[in-house]
Amino acid sequence: MNSFVSATSIEAHPQAAAEEVVRLTDVKRRFGTTPALDGISLTVKRGEILGIIGRSGAGKSTLIRCLNGLERADSGEIFIEGRDIIRLQEQELQPLRRRIGMIFQHFNLLSAKTVEENVALPLKIEGVSKNERLKRAHELLDLVGLADKAKAYPASLSGGQKQRVGIARALAARPALLLSDEATSALDPETTRSILALLKDINRKLGLTILLITHEMEVVRGIADRVAVIDAGRIVEEGQVWSVFANPRADITRSLLGGIRPQLPDHIARRLSKTGGSEAILSVDLAGPEAQGALFAELSAALPHSFRLVHGGIDHIQNQPVARFFIAVPSRDPALAGKVEQFLTARSARVEVLGYDTDHV
């Protein structure tokens, strides 16, 4: 008989925090002549939340199917808790799959079963006794805030409640790794925030490792420790979330961030030219203490000119200030924009001259 411990009483072992739960090395998967995964390498440490983000068709779904063993990679290594699953036979994969929980975009609940029966289903498949699996189901429903819905059926639940049931079911067998496949894409923004808060709380209470597949930068911003950006089957950028948001290097990352980072207003962007105009428009990206300091006052003191703040703002990601500003620099002195760029770059800012405003008087 399996022995169960209350979900809320589990704590992550401090020495386990640095262990790798997932390690992929040069993983490739083709469908015909099309590479779905083209040399993916990444690691996920125990207790970490990693967001993998990319557009539709980037390879996210193939990657998650390779991680849970539903797809076989053509080459490379996929280690889950130290075992290379590529080389395991199907019967050897079964116990390993139980170490991987899965939550889905469309919930995948069984409509003819109650909430508690849906949550307990993985344990029923394992052969756990009814009393033990219902005890575990009730513990998990309490954890996800649905203790009063145990006897309800999925049809009576809201989308957010259905996803909470899905999360509870994914945790039933005490997985080492939780895979989230676009789990909030079908939810409204308020419900999405509540689900992300729940996942973060579970991560903190259980020390659970979570890998999020998403196309939404807001999801990554709200919960992940690190982010990996996938494009055309390759990881094109990876790092701590605040660092990537502050200084996105790949074009696809900048595009994905376009909706949540300050952008130069369209009416100004449309009138920029490569030369001429009374002002040069610069974008300034920076993070850390400089993002909240008296940077522009120091700039004006060092280079006494009439600089103008056009647009921008400061956000806080992982307790780090992350700023993006657009400033206008008088262009009557052709060398001034270069001097401003040099001053700001010396203070760890990333600066780009976007063009010259032809209409500003």
From TrEMBL:
Q: Does the keyword rRNA-binding apply?
A: no
* A Pfam family of this chain: NIL
Give any Gene Ontology cellular component. plasma membrane
What keywords would UniProt list here?
Amino-acid transport, ATP-binding, Cell membrane, Membrane, Nucleotide-binding, Translocase, Transport
* One GO process term, biological-process aspect: amino acid transport
| Keyword Magnesium among record annotations | no
Q: Do you know which Gene3D superfamilies this protein is assigned to? A: 3.30.70.260, P-loop containing nucleotide triphosphate hydrolases
Q: Which InterPro entries match?
A: AAA+_ATPase, ABC_transporter-like_ATP-bd, ABC_transporter-like_CS, ACT-like_dom_sf, MetN_ABC, MetN_ABC_transporter-like, NIL_domain, P-loop_NTPase
Q: What does this protein do?
A: Part of the ABC transporter FtsEX involved in cellular division. Important for assembly or stability of the septal ring.
- Protein family (similarity comment): Belongs to the ABC transporter superfamily.
Q: What is this protein called in UniProt?
A: Cell division ATP-binding protein FtsE
Species whose genome carries this gene: Rhizobium vallis
